[in-house]
Design brief:
The complex is a heterodimer. By secondary structure, chain A is of the alpha+beta class. Chain A folds into four domains: about 210 residues, f41 fragment of flagellin, N-terminal domain (Up-down Bundle), CATH 1.20.1330; about 110 residues, Beta-Lactamase, CATH 3.30.450.20; about 110 residues, Up-down Bundle (Four Helix Bundle (Hemerythrin (Met), subunit A)), CATH 1.20.120; about 200 residues, Heat Shock Protein 90 (2-Layer Sandwich), CATH 3.30.565. In chain A, the strands form four sheets. Chain A has a five-stranded antiparallel sheet. In chain A, strands 10-11-12-14-13 form a five-stranded mixed sheet. In chain A, strands 1-2 form a two-stranded antiparallel ribbon. Helix content of chain A is about 60%, strand content about 15%. Chain B is an alpha/beta fold. Chain B contains five helices and five strands; from the N terminus they run βαβαβαβαβα. A five-stranded parallel sheet of chain B has the order 2-1-3-4-5, sandwiched between helices. The longest helix of chain B has 12 residues. Chain B is globular, with a radius of gyration of 13 Å. The chains are: A alpha+beta, B alpha/beta. At the A-B interface, α8, α12 and α13 of A face α1, α4, β5 and α5 of B. Chain B: This is Response regulator.
């Protein structure tokens, strides 16, 4: 466990090296042991050889001594030599027999172990048997030196008799000891040879094992490197890593070059990468944002929306020397190593096309103005909350208006003035967002933008505030419009009633379409467009509609009435010239038919001008001349329901810009209804839709449940 | 039960947060409509979690956050604001807040943000 944990992939090499060391130590130990044995064997062999020499030296000294005495000399030298030779021979032989000390060639005392092989033991035993009587006689001679002539000759006889035998025995001993020593050195050589062989084998084993392992790990690393390389080469995003000093790492994707130009970015600071693209305060903000990501305390998932570079417009140099305006999106993510934030991964994406698409979608949506969803949101809001919000916002906007108008403000007071406005509009935005009133939130946001631009402007003048007043008017208009719709919808709010059982239930009280707001709206629009109208209203049958359907029908009728006033009814002068009464009539009718409920809005105006509709569609680029020529009458009239289609010469609040006829079609589709247009140029136009019985029944069933 | 304090000059937002569905693990222990008030309330209630707006009268968020952070070191601070000025929000986070939630937000978004914030 410990091993695996601490050595991991190096386990094999550690085992091999350990084996190598153990083997070598073993061989070394054995070598040392045997070498010391061989050394002591060499001493034995030497001493055994010396015994040969000593046996001869003793006999020679004995004979010399006898000769000296015979010639009348003292013979002291020979006598001494004889005694020392005999003593040394005796001591050594005893030591060979049972172990003991003797002196070596230099006269040093050394310990001699008893011989061990059977041959040596036999030889030593035999030598002792012969030597012991001789040694006794030598001792006697020594003790009785001056009176031992007969003893001397006796000793000479014995010595002569046994001399060759002893010499042979000592020779045998030497040979035997030599052969033992040879055997040991053979063993040692054999052990050394095998150990070296084993060591070499182990070495090759390690070598091959690791070359193999290195190769395979190199192959893995190479594969991974190639993979990374391939990813970096092919990935569409620009990928790069920043360290804690915001310096770019050595590896980055090829797209980085495609986006920022073919340079080497490794080691470059992020600031230099964005040099000329993101400047001044924005660059500082970006760096501070990245530092937030490097701050362990801050939650990465909770600051994504603060990314200052989520969509930046930049001018990038092109190969042809020109510049292209691009939208880049930068994403910043932490990379974690050992539980710590190690780097920031930067992902750069060219979102130019996405932005263009989004902008065109937004433009299309804005053209359609308030769509059904917005209406629904209004309908679902608690009417008191909505009303309170609208009143307060109106007050706020008027307060801003007053502040802006306040001409007494000194130039140095402008900033305080702006600050005050900013705070108010910011709160309006927050509140609108909270109530999901995105239109107001957006309007507030734009207004806030304008204020902020002014805040950054140096040397403000009173006239700089003028555009603000205009935006403010638009804003107030929007609030007024919403209030109108809010009033319209108020009657559709669910009413809580106490049922007979006493339980509180929420139930729709059947109500017809709300006439008053529609009438008011029609009058106001007529007035603004300088037209005279009268509206007849017959909508009792609308009671069969579900609450949801009523919202859709009411919104559609509002639109059709707007359309009738703006596009249908002519001005009083034109009407008189055409022989019509100066006041136009608009007829709103809801009636039950055999196959459903029909809702119709009819005006006695100029009717649809097919020729103008075709021209308009062509001018707007909706269809080509050829295609339009192929359209039936009905199909041409249907053009007015297409998004973005408007025949009003100039966009104004009520038509040609605001709420599109497209909304009517969307609403009718939702109720699975069908639209019908009856039209007679210069006489009348009636647009109606039929909600099929199946839909009405559905809603009745749904309400019953 | 975590102790939540809401700081926002808008009544609508304060109500909106305190009435968020599914915040079962939280008790709103205090609300404040500006930075000065927030510091007083925080001192009394020692909240675990603070949501705070940036633009407020008297004392705004960026001024209040470092004070709140040192006053309640255990508290996690969530900046709840519109995206009008990212630099201010980033500065506020650098001065001791832990996360940012963009107005407008849904119940789910607020719940997720508080959950994320509570994690170590």
């Amino acid at each position: 466990m410990f091993f695996a944990r601490n050595f991991g992939k190096y386990r094999a090499i550690v085992i091999s090296v350990a084996m190598f060391i153990i083997l070598d130590l073993g061989v070394l130990g054995l070598n040392f042991y045997i070498s010391s044995q061989i050394a002591s064997d060499a001493v034995n062999v030497n001493l055994a050889g010396r015994q040969r020499m000593l046996s001869q030296k003793s006999v020679k000294a004995l004979l010399d001594y006898q000769n000296d005495l015979a010639q009348g000399a003292s013979g002291a030298d020979a006598y001494q030599e004889m005694l020392s030779s005999v003593a040394l021979f005796d001591r050594t032989l005893q030591a060979f027999h049972s172990g003991g000390y003797t002196s070596d060639a230099t006269g040093q005392e050394i310990f001699l172990a008893a011989v061990e092989t059977p041959i040596s033991i036999a030889v030593v035993e035999e030598s002792l048997a012969i030597w012991k009587p001789i040694r006794r006689d030598f001792s006697r001679l020594e003790r009785e030196s001056n009176s031992g002539r007969p003893l001397l000759s006796h000793l000479v006889d014995i010595a002569k008799q046994n001399n060759l035998t002893l010499l042979k025995l000592m020779n045998d001993l030497t040979n035997d000891l030599e052969s033992v020593a040879k055997q040991k050195s053979d063993t040692l050589r054999w052990i050394q040879a095998s150990a070296i062989t084993l060591a070499i084998l182990n070495f090759f084993l390690i070598l091959f094992h690791f070359i193999g392992q290195l190769r395979s790990s190199d192959a893995v690393a190479e594969f991974a490197r190639k993979e990374t390389q391939e990813i970096l080469l092919t990935v569409r995003e620009g990928l790069l890593l920043l360290d804690s000093n915001l310096i770019i790492g050595s590896q980055y994707s090829e797209s980085v070059k495609a986006i920022f130009g073919d340079r080497d970015f490794a080691g470059m600071s992020f600031r230099s990468l964005l040099h000329n693209l993101v400047v001044g305060q924005d660059m500082t903000t970006t760096e501070e944002y990245i530092k937030l990501l490097l701050n362990e305390q801050v939650k990465e998932n909770l600051i994504g929306s603060l990314n200052p570079l989520s969509d930046v417009e930049v001018s990038l140099p092109q190969a042809n020397g020109g510049y292209a305006v691009k939208h880049l999106s930068f994403r910043f993510n932490r990379t974690i190593e050992d539980g710590k934030i190690s780097h920031i991964l930067v992902t750069v994406l060219d979102i130019t096309e996405t932005v263009a698409l989004r902008q065109s979608l937004e433009a299309a949506r804005n053209q359609q103005g308030l769509h059904t969803d917005a209406l629904k949101k209004l309908a679902h809001l608690d009417s008191t909350t909505l009303s309170a919000f609208l009143s307060r916002t109106e007050q706020d906007l008027h307060a801003i208006n007053d502040t802006l108008k306040d001409e007494a403000a000194e130039p140095q007071g402008y900033n305080a003035k702006l600050q005050n406005c900013l705070r108010i509009v910011h709160r309006v935005k927050g509140d609108a967002g909270a109530l999901d009133l995105l239109q107001i939130a957006t309007a507030a946001h734009h207004f806030e933008d304008q204020l902020q631009i002014l805040q950054k402007t140096e040397g403000l003048q009173g006239s700089d505030f003028l555009p603000l007043t205009l935006s403010l008017n638009d804003f107030l208009q929007l609030i007024a419009e919403l209030r109108e719709i809010s009033d319209l919808l108020q009657n559709l709010q669910p009413v809580q009633v106490v049922a007979e059982s006493g339980a509180v239930t929420t139930e729709q009280i059947p109500l017809p379409l709300d006439e008053q707001p529609i009438m008011r709206l029609a009058k106001r629009i007529a007035q603004e467009n300088d037209k005279a109208i009268s509206v007849t209203f017959d909508a009792e049958e609308a009671a069969v509609l579900s609450a949801e359907q009523r919202i859709l029908v009411q919104a559609s009728v509002i639109q059709l009435v707007r359309n009738a006033v703006v596009h249908g009814v002519e001005s009083a002068e034109v009407r008189l010239l055409a022989g019509k009464p100066p006041t136009g009539t608009i007829d709103v009718r809801v009636s039950l038919e055999a196959d459903g409920l029909r809702v119709s809005v009819r005006d006695d105006g100029q009717g649809l001008n097919l020729k103008r509709l075709r021209e308009q569609a062509e001018a707007k680029g909706l269809y080509s001349r050829e295609v339009l020529d192929g359209f039936s009458r009905t199909r041409v009239m249907g053009l007015i329901f297409e998004p973005g289609f408007s025949t009003a010469a100039e966009a104004n609040e009520h038509a040609g810009r605001g709420i599109g006829m497209d909304l009517v079609r969307t609403n009718v589709n939702k109720m699975k209804g069908r639209i019908r247009i009856s039209n007679q140029p210069r006489r009348y136009c009636e647009i109606s839709f039929l909600i099929p019985t199946s839909q009405l029944e559905d809603s009745l069933v749904a309400e019953a449940v | 039960m975590k102790r939540l304090m809401i700081v926002d000059d808008s009544m609508v937002i304060r109500r909106r947060i305190s009435r968020t569905h599914g915040l079962d693990g939280y008790a709103v222990v205090g609300t404040a409509e500006d930075g000065i008030n927030a510091i007083e309330v925080a001192r009394e209630t020692q909240p675990d979690m603070i949501t705070i707006d940036l633009t407020m009268p008297n004392m705004d968020g960026p001024e209040a956050i470092p004070v709140l952070a040192s006053l309640c070191p255990q508290a996690r601070i969530l900046v709840v604001s519109a995206l009008s000025d990212k630099a201010t929000a980033i500065g506020a986070l650098a001065s001791g807040a832990h996360g940012f939630l963009c107005k407008p937000f849904t119940d789910q978004e607020l719940r997720d943000a508080l959950l994320e914030l509570a994690q170590d």
